[in-house]
Amino acid sequence: MPKKVAVIGAGIGGIAVSARLAAKGYEIDVFEKNDRPGGKMSEIRHEGFRFDTGPSLFTLPNLIGELFELVDDDFASHFKYSKQPVVCRYFYEDGMIINAYGETEEFAEELHRKAGEDSKNVIRYLGESSRIYDFTYPVFINNSLHRFRNYYSKDFIRALFLLPKLKPFKTLHEINQRSFTHPNTVQLFDRFATYNGSDPFKTPATMIVIPHLEHNLGAYFPVKGMYEIAQSLKSLCERMGVRFYFNCEVQEILLSGNKVAGLRVNGEDFLDYKIIVSDLDIYFLYKKLLKKLPFPEKWFRHERSTSALIFYWGMETESPGLDLHNILFSADYQQEFNCLFNLRTLHSDPTVYIFISSKVVAEDAPAGCENWFVMINTPENVGQDWDLMINDVRGQIEKKIKRITGIDISQHRKFEFILDPRGIEEKTASYRGSLYGNSSNTIWAAFQRHPNFSKIRGLYYTGGSVHPGGGIPLCLSSAKIVADMIPSIKK
Hints:
Layout lengths: L3 E5 L3 H12 L3 E6 L10 E4 L2 E4 L9 H8 L5 H4 L2 E3 L2 E6 L5 E5 L2 H12 L3 H23 L12 H8 L10 H8 L3 H8 L19 H6 L4 E3 L4 H13 L3 E4 L3 E7 L2 E7 L2 E3 L4 E4 L3 H8 L17 E9 L9 E4 L4 H11 L8 E4 L14 E9 L7 H20 L3 H4 E7 L1 H8 L30 E3 L10 H14 L6
Parallel strand pairs: 1-2, 1-13, 2-9, 6-15, 13-19
Antiparallel strand pairs: 3-4, 5-8, 6-7, 10-11, 11-12, 14-17, 14-18, 15-16, 16-17
């Protein structure tokens, strides 16, 4: 049995699968074209400010803990994090402010006080969210959907009988509208569709599983910021003997008939890899590294997820009214998603997300200052005039922030960096800048994601562009799925 494995890409999926396969006895070499690990999870340091550039929400820390447990490592001594009392602070144009507490009962009481919701009804909704999560996680998240034998498992058969409870034939918005009385509450729960780049007016109501992660299990934050996740996992892998090669771009996956034969890296052939795991966006994998194979059009016909426009602002002020995570909602949510998915443009009144890690990690900004990560959802990049659209929407974002928070950005902004869908595609090799690959806007979306294995013997896929999808927990799940497909080496 081959002992050496090559992993292409040091994103979260690539790092996690490296740890899992190293624990199975393999020698792992990771090739990364950038100069650091993390993929979309990276950081910017400038003039005493530090910004996490990618994912900002941390749930299910036990999935990180699982990787440390592979070597009986002391998770707590290598990676520290804290539970956040408030998951997110929501601001509405009518002046309402809702603190989305991480504790179920406290969150329910907040919705009762602010929006008049029946707190018992909120708890019931979150209980249903928990039950649907328990049904779906072992079948649709932690398991391959592209191997027929898995459809005969007890978990799948149980999920099949419980299909009506999974609510696949109603949209998330329809269920939320039926469940709550205040439109602000409906909008809050509709937002969870954006966690995988989807549209609440299209995505199946099965997505009500997502609030369970925040309001039943809780949201957390690493004591050194989000990028600490990538750095800690890289260090773990190195303690397990994994070798990382940065600034090393893979040009081609070499084949011998229907088998993996090796890699071409920086113009040199390496022929001692019979197992390869790719963490590269699946579109670019086929286009750049498997050029000799027919391009599999069927996996790329489906609607793609949203992208993002992000402003990184060094702010010479403090904002006591804002929290770690903040949402300034659009007054017309349905029109915003119509713009994103149908018109492929930006809404004139976009929902604005403000993430300020210095609220928790004081070292992320100088004294009296804050590091603002300001993001709006955008459509995928299909050739729009982004410079024109960014220029137009910037003013709307600044006016919205001033109107709702009272902060005049122009008076306090020291510097700015911008990342738009073009830059996301270039920096992270994400096709059209889509953050999560395909959207989840149909009941069949889970089955339309590319599988984690290939017809090419010895070739596997992990990361956000393949099953089960994007985001830290799903990328970690994809790594587990792949590792479970590869047998251990007997020592």
